[in-house]
Predict the 3D structure of the following.
Amino acid sequence: MEDIHLRTKPSIMADTLDPLSPSTNDSSPGLMHILRQRLGRTPTGSNGDGYVEFGEFRSERPGVKKVGTFAGVFCPVVLSMFSALVFIRMGYLIGNAGLLVTLAQFGMAYLIVGFTVTSICAISTNGAVEGGGVYFMISRTLGPEFGGAIGTLFFFANVVSSALCISACAEAMVENFGDDGGYLIGSSPGLPSGYWYNFLYRSSLNAVGLGVSLAGASLFASTSLAIWLTTIICLFSAFLSFFITAPGQIEKPASNTIVNATNFTYTGLSSVTLRENLYPNYSRDYTADGEFVDFASVFGVLFTGVTGVMAGANMSGELKNPSLNIPRGTLGALLLTALTYLSLSLLTAATCSRELLQNNYVYLLPINIWPPFIAVGMLTATFSAGLSNLIGASRVLEALAKDDIFGFLLRPMVSTSGNPVLAVIASWLLVQFAIMADSLNAIAQVNSVLFMTSYFAINLACLGLDLASAPNFRPTFKQFSWASSLAGLVGCAGVMFFTRAGYAAGAALACCGLVLALHFLSPAAADPGWGSLSQALIFHQVRKYLLLLDPRRQHVKFWRPQMLLLVASPRHCAPLIDFVNDQKKGGLFVLGHVRVGELDGSGDPLSDEHKYWLQLIDHLKVKAFVELCLCESVRGGAAQLSRLSGLGAMKPDTVLLGFRDQAPHRDFFRDPSSPYKTAMFDLEGGEVVFPARSSKISVTEYVRIVSDVLCVGKNVCLCRHFHKLDMDAIAKRSSSSRSIDVWLVEPLRPSREEPFSVRALFALQLAAVVRSARGWTRLGLRVHIITGVSTIGTLPSSPDQLSPGRPITERLEQLLKMLRINATIHPVPEWPSLEGSHRWADLDDDQVYQRVPLNYLQKVNSIIKARSSEAVVTFIQLPPPPPSVNRDDDICSDYLKTLDELTKDLSPTILVRGLKSVTSTSL
């Protein structure tokens, strides 16, 4: 049975509070966890003063090498951004799009990337950044579902980018060392070309990358400076060559088979050449079987030159100080590459004919003062970029595995040695699959869309943080705003759909699908412990709309149930909680619980218990809030919850209580036949959460609680026999012959006009709401009334057809039609009479409960039992508590005995007393 007796002993879940331990009453990390993140240290013990002593810094541990801004961020970003573009595809850009469009595209790309970099810097300087780079930032900001989805796409973006760079490196090998290369090997036989030969070269380069990655990221970081210096020297030689190399004819590469001409003009610095190369002149791409080039394809290739901006952030787990290294290194690399692309575009357009640029993408090599410089630059820039992306992909994959985003699928990817070997091998296999695409430009299109999706998420995260105005969002990087994040977000989305709508739509669908899948299936989604931006934004919006929800403007037409259910132990009233969840009809549902006690200065005794109530809501799958109250008496706590639950205009208007009787309790969490069975609330040592009660509150206190609820203007419902309610059986089709019954008669003061009173219509409205809930719609709604022709009163403001003098069944039928309630009317002609009924109306409420005959209550009970034997739930009018309830304990006992006899052995029953009008016949 359900009652409101509440435990009086301290919670068995209470522990000693430690300010350095993780929080036990919410999902936020405790101070200890934050210190571990910030300092990279683990606690080794505590001193006598209670302060925690820490071990060595993470960066000082033996065997763990960390890199700084230049080697860890600046060099990888520069090398990744140069990759295939600077040495291999500048001719493709200028030759097809012309100088003006190319510069405009670079400006657009750098504008998007610049806004994104400010967002990256803002997030990375707002807290400790661990391994996983951009994925770590997104997931800790947007939560596990959205973060996991974007992290997965970012992982594939790194895989595709690695394949792009490996393919570019293989193309450079063929261009330099192929049969017709001749720049380095003279007349000696060169490398054979063809699809399978090219695939072999790519696979070999990918295998070398695998070997370096397995050796550890520190090896790559330590050599990145040498690679960077080599690339810069080679690039400087290219700039110098524009001024030194004499004009002449340049042969076409062997891979170009779509034109007959063999030589193209290099003019040197020339204003005429510059004018000829100003405007677009799209042609066919000789590396993609002669496909025609357009604006979108050029931008897709160009954007690969700025996707490497996240290479430094991907190395966050290997950086000494990620919050400092990432902003400085990324911004510096962004500036250098922008100046390089601008200069190279201008010099190329001013020295090379359009035909040369369209038919020889590696034009820098033959015009160089010493061609090996360009060959070395091609190989080092592309291979190092591919290696950087391979390492970055493995780190993102390991971070996904550590966060348990995909459960058991990725758990083997977690490394205990510092280098995620299995994650590296898995990334390498996917790169191996991606390099099967023969066209470098085709890979570039997919690569650009995937990276722009990641940039979109970064800007979205930063925009949300700024708009949510979270007090803890205090990045040390100040050169950003919500406007810059919004501009980056809109720019990414616009460019994606403008250039490659099909690819963009596919990425968006994949992202949405992953978000939904992770929301329902991911173990991390249940309790990530990271915080979620969505919660901050929801709080921000809810607070704003609660202020707009004015209680003075509420109207009965838009009334909906707002329930406060007071329970002692959910263990014994799980079906009632489930039922009230169906009864709320999109309204407010609050679970209230009172514990007898008081604060003693040692902490909040309810904080530990609150998390179990939240777990209860998840277990029962109800949409409810929890309000726990600590008070010196159950009555006082119930009064506090009745008055103070809710916020603003969203406050409960109806209080529900379990019935106080002597029936034995049923443990729905341990009963093998119960649909609510769970071991979730069984603790070690045989103790349980929400234990059974050894004693009940007194009859007097129970009745006085009912009186208090009515006194503060709340509707009240007393719920009995709900341990009989089988929610699973209700959903079955076999239950369609059963019904929800409403008795529109007050048992102790029967009147044929009762169906038209406010309190009766409140019970009818509650029954109609229950019937409209999912799973209850197949049940019929039956209304029981006392028949006869009434000469007493009318329904205020009722239409003429409801006027007195007409049969009550006809009047009620008209009212039901006007209220749009589909119910059948069942007259009750055999209602028993009260002894001395001519004097019964003259008795006050106290005398009624003292003098009501027992046999009268038994007859009423038998009538209800006979007529509502097939009812799933029965609604009955609740007689009012006696006025002297606060002065006479015997009156309280008489009142509860009356209710007990009235509802004995019925189906699940709700005794309802409504105080407010909740129905409307107006439009």
User: Anything to note?
Assistant: DSSP finds 31 helices and 16 strands in the chain. Residues 314 and 590 are 45 Å apart (CA to CA). Confidence is low (pLDDT under 50) at residues 1-64, 182-186, 788-803. The first helix runs from residue 31 to 39.
